[in-house]
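Next up, sample data.

:::
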Amino acid sequence: MPRRWRDKRAVTRYLATVALPVLLETVGERELTLRLAALADDPVGVRRAMVDLGLVQRTRDGAEYWRTEVTEYEELVLAETVREVGGE
């Protein structure tokens, strides 16, 4: 993760969009951690940062997470997904 707050915030917003591409989709803690582990060296730290920034909400016991905020990376992530599925 970058040290500068602005850069850390941007990276966290991007990772939240990639790991939880469907807004309000509920995902278990283990699944989210696995998704983040494929993207970052510290998946638990990224998960915590997403919650701290208000991008992601969680149940009181931390068993389930969901993204609550639309980010500026929605179209980029969608385009990457279409490219991967289409094999381009």
User: Anything to note?
Assistant: The chain has one domain: 5-86.
